[in-house]
Amino acid sequence: MATKSARAAAARKVESIYKIVEVVGTSTESWEDAARNAVKAASSTLRDLRIAEVVKQDMTVKNGKIMSFRTRVLLSFKYDA
Description:
CATH class: Alpha Beta
Helix content: 25-40%
Distance between the termini: 33 Å
Number of helices: 2
Oligomer: single chain
Shape: rod-shaped
Radius of gyration: 20 Å
Strand order of the largest sheet: 1-3-2
CATH topology: Dodecin subunit-like
Largest sheet: 3 strands, antiparallel
């Protein structure tokens, strides 16, 4: 049986909710720079970013030359309801 202090501690415990958004960063240098650019841009409007997961990488090509690197990133941040 839980003690009174254990029940009080459990009542204070707040579960966190996270929202996930998908962003695509670009760079003429590398996929890593593209991912960094995606996180940097998103952090200017989203608060409390927690996890960045790279889910896809591709490139734009023109006349056989790489024009840009693109990195698709899932970002999670704390959701304030």
